[in-house]
Amino acid sequence: KDPPMKNYRLILASASPRRKELLQQIGVTFEVIPSHGEESLTTHSPAQAVLELSRQKATEVAAGIAASLPACPSQPPASPNTSPEPAIILGADTLVAFEGQILGKPHTPEEATSMLRMLAGHTHSVFTGVTILFLGQNLPSPLSFYEETKVTVSPMTEQQISAYVATGEPMDKAGAYGIQGRFAVHIQGISGDYNNVVGLPVARIYQEMRKSGIEILQDS
Hints:
- This protein is α/β, with parallel strands linked by helices.
- 30% of the residues lie in helices and 23% in strands.
- Strands 1, 2, 3, 4, 5, 6 and 7 form a seven-stranded mixed β-sheet that branches.
- Helix 3 (109-119) crosses helix 4.
- The two termini are 17 Å apart.
């Protein structure tokens, strides 16, 4: 069996500070090139939605990298499969789903309050979709998968919900809460990968990459 590949650019196609922190936490060397395209969904399934959105992010960044490669007169124009240095694009998207309803990021404090009322005292699912694209010669096929974690929120009073919304923490987070922030006191339990709820299932990503012959931990 060939030794795992270690020499490549790893690019996180997300501006999420939490995804960046998770990759830093496990000791991965990477750069951030966030996607800026409009997200569009063709499905109401949370699992399919996160796969769709993660693919859109990874594909947009991959196309931008391919377009920026220096053109060589004796060769055809660069495409996502031709790159002087192998690159791995990691796109991810996280959604919260409760009783079949997809909860994205709230746009207003009122929307955040409504979402938290829904989640309080119940169990919901957090889905993170991951798409990994490989740019270069003789590299693995794209990977696309999702991880689901079930989260149970303790019952909350209106005062507790208002106090949490007033912190501003819910406003950039799917489902209007951050499990790694102040909302931790309201989490009764989780079933599955905690990091998946934060925004990136790093264990699954590591295992899937290893299966494809890629080593993301440079000191392994």
